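thread: overnight batch results

M.L. [08:02]
morning all. the overnight job finished for the chain we discussed friday. pasting input first so we're all looking at the same thing
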Amino acid sequence: MDGAGASEASTAFAGDEFYDDAVKYWEGITATVDGMMGGFGRLSSTDVAASKKFLLPFIRGVEAVVQPNRVLDCGSGIGRVSKRLLLPLFAEGDLVEQNKAFLDRAATYLVGGDQHCRLVTAKFRQ
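M.L. [08:03]
and the structure it wrote out:
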């Protein structure tokens, strides 16, 4: 991409319109695994398995570079990734999501395991 194209790309995300559009989009999505996966909920197990394979060398073994004490799930949705991937590997977690309906669903979705986490409703662009 030439210099002019790069400049156009960076300004496309600079305004409030981009973020406002994202909020509107997610407000129209159901608070389910299928909703979080864009209609491909059946791929959730495959997604989690591949992510775990990628993450494990960073937190376990002789070459680990991260202590699995606390994890932050930004844009957590209903907590699908936290429940199935992050919270089983880390002692505690924080789920941060701008859509309160998603976090309300996360409160019940995460029940059933030893889930040590906090749910925080916040925007990342404040």
